[in-house]
Structure formats: C-alpha cells, structure tokens
C-alpha cells in the first residue's frame, strides 16, 4: 500500500518522537525520528520528507536554528515545518515564523488536529513537487530543442552562466538573477513548434518562412505561461529579439520599452552567437565579438550602458568568464 506521506519528527525526548510515530504510523505515514538538530538537518537533506514536526526547546541547536538552517538550503527550503511547542508567547511564535515555520501545534496537541495538519501539508508538498516536475520537464524539452537547433546543449549552459554573470555585474537581485538563469534554457523553447525545414534551411528564409520563425517567441511564452513560477521569465522569452531602434520583433519595441532583463539577456545572446561556430562561419574571437556588439549598439540595436558593462567586465577579466554554478572559470572561445 502506498504511504500517505513521509514525516520527520524532531524532538530531544525519545518518548515524544515515539508517541508521534505511533500516532502517525497506523494512518499510513512513514515516520523518521531525530533527537537533535544536526541529525534532523542531515535526514531532511538526505530523505526530503513531506512534513517536518519540530520541537523548539532542544539542547545545543534549538528548533529556531534548525528551522532557519532548513530554509537557507535550496534542497530543503520548501519543506513544510510544523513547530511543536509548549511556549504560548507571542514572541516565540513570531520568532518561529521569522525562522520560516509553516504552522504551529501547541503541546499537548490533539491527535485529530495533528493528523489534519499533517495531511494538508503533505497535499501542499505534493502540489509543490508537481510544479517542480513540470518545470523539470520544460527544461528537458528546452535542452532537446537546443540539441535539435544547435547540435549540442552547451549553448543553454553558456547563456545561463553569462547572463547571471552580467546580471551580477549590474548588481541585480536574486530574483532577477534566477530569471536570467532560467531564460538561458527557456528563451528559445518555442522553436519546438518550428518545422525542421525552416529551422535548418541552409539558405535565406522567404517572408512567409521568416514569419513562422518569428512565431517561436509566442509559442515559447504559451508553453511557459501556465507555470506561475516562470512568470518573470516570460518578458525575456518574448522580447529578447527586440532592438532598441524598434526594428526587432515581435512587438517592435523601442529603447526602454524593452523589458530590462530582456535587454540584459540579448547582449549575452548575441555575444554567444558571435563566439560560437556555425555551419557557415567559424567562431569569432571574443575581442572581435565585443567590437561588433559596440558597432551594433552605435547602430541602435542594443542598450549602450549594458553593452559597456559587459564589454568592460570581459576586458577586465581577461575574457575569463566565471561558470558560476559549475565553479571555476571558462575561457571564452
């Protein structure tokens, strides 16, 4: 029989953890027990429970610190944490909320209320997992599209790293950096709807074929729009082919009408295209790519301030671009 959910119980009193295990076990829950904070953090990271029941008053690392550390780690920050406490003070509750607690249960707690809280939070956790699965599926589709279009999936990785690197140079916040990182993989996902005959045509596209090719931004937005977590990425997907002089697509936006993150992203997109090999030409040296970027900026294509930040940062780094998530540096070839 499938388990109702997985619960991690954290309390320094073995009698308390055992009582919770005996209450939840017959209801179909798989229950793990931890008697101290460090063990709880280890189990949470290794097993990713659906719900954590956490006592506040423990020796050494107390429940407040455990909760705070759980919320600091990407792997565990979305795990629901129910605080079990005999403290009924407003200060304790506020402190637990500030640490990231999801809910409270006062000791001694009612077993029926415990089961309802756990069941609801398991349901919430499963919804989050479904969203994560949907996102992972979209990123897998994006990589498949990239392999179909470029021959490798490395273009996505390079764009993601370069976009975040430039965003950091511009002092952007974490939410904006996350949108840029995701855009590196999702910006051209709409090409899944473009026929191979057009996508791989060796010669110039006809006006009708070019119209179909341009539609990939609308297709991409349509694919990603249902996921609320991807809303910040949509303006980048739609507008990374705009130009500052209004000659781009799909909306012919001009200047600052182009969303800022799209303006950041299009600079690294053009740079990566220039410094990557194509069937019709070899990759350009990074210095030549920077020269072309500046030339096109003077022609009215790209945001001059963003281009200069990018160009100066590359020059100051000796064209060594940090690969961020992978660690180390990568020489731009």
TrEMBL record:
<dbReference type="GO" id="GO:0000160">
    <property type="term" value="P:phosphorelay signal transduction system"/>
</dbReference>
<keyword id="KW-0597">Phosphoprotein</keyword>
<dbReference type="InterPro" id="IPR001789">
    <property type="entry name" value="Sig_transdc_resp-reg_receiver"/>
</dbReference>
<dbReference type="Pfam" id="PF13487">
    <property type="entry name" value="HD_5"/>
</dbReference>
<protein>
    <submittedName>
        <fullName>Response regulator</fullName>
    </submittedName>
</protein>
<feature type="domain" description="HD-GYP">
    <location>
        <begin position="130"/>
        <end position="326"/>
    </location>
</feature>
<dbReference type="InterPro" id="IPR037522">
    <property type="entry name" value="HD_GYP_dom"/>
</dbReference>
<dbReference type="InterPro" id="IPR006675">
    <property type="entry name" value="HDIG_dom"/>
</dbReference>
<feature type="domain" description="Response regulatory">
    <location>
        <begin position="6"/>
        <end position="122"/>
    </location>
</feature>
<dbReference type="InterPro" id="IPR003607">
    <property type="entry name" value="HD/PDEase_dom"/>
</dbReference>
<dbReference type="InterPro" id="IPR011006">
    <property type="entry name" value="CheY-like_superfamily"/>
</dbReference>
<dbReference type="InterPro" id="IPR052020">
    <property type="entry name" value="Cyclic_di-GMP/3'3'-cGAMP_PDE"/>
</dbReference>
<feature type="modified residue" description="4-aspartylphosphate">
    <location>
        <position position="55"/>
    </location>
</feature>
<dbReference type="Pfam" id="PF00072">
    <property type="entry name" value="Response_reg"/>
</dbReference>
């Amino acid at each position: 029989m499938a388990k109702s959910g997985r619960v991690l119980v954290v309390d320094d009193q073995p009698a308390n953890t055992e009582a919770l295990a005996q209450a939840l076990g017959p209801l179909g829950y798989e229950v793990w027990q931890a008697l101290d904070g460090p063990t709880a953090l280890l189990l949470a990271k290794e097993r990713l429970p659906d719900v954590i029941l956490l006592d506040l008053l423990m020796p050494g690392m107390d429940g407040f610190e455990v909760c705070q550390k759980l919320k600091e780690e990407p792997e565990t920050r979305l795990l629901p944490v129910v605080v079990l406490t005999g403290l009924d003070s407003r200060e304790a509750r506020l402190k637990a909320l500030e640490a990231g607690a999801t809910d409270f249960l006062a000791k001694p707690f009612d077993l029926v209320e415990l089961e309802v809280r756990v069941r609801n939070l398991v349901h919430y956790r499963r919804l989050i997992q479904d969203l994560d699965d949907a996102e992972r599926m979209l990123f897998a589709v994006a990589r498949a599209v990239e392999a179909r279009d470029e021959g490798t999936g490395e273009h996505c990785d390079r764009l993601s790293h370069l976009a975040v690197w430039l965003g950091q140079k511009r002092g952007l916040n974490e939410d904006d950096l996350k949108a840029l990182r995701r855009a590196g993989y999702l910006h051209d996902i709409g090409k899944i709807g473009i026929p191979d005959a057009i996508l791989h045509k060796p010669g110039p596209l006809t006006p009708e074929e070019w119209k179909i090719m341009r539609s990939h931004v609308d297709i991409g937005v349509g694919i990603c729009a249902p996921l609320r977590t991807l809303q910040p990425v949509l303006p980048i997907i739609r507008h990374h082919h705009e130009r500052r002089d209004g000659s781009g697509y799909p909306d012919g936006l001009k200047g600052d009408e182009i969303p800022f993150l799209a303006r950041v992203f299009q600079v690294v997109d053009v740079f990566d295209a220039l410094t990557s090999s194509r069937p019709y030409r070899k990759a350009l040296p990074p210095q030549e790519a920077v020269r072309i970027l500046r030339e096109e900026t003077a022609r009215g294509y790209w945001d001059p301030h963003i281009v200069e930040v990018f160009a100066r940062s590359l020059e100051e780094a000796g064209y060594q671009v940090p690969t961020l998530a992978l660690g180390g540096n990568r020489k731009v070839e």
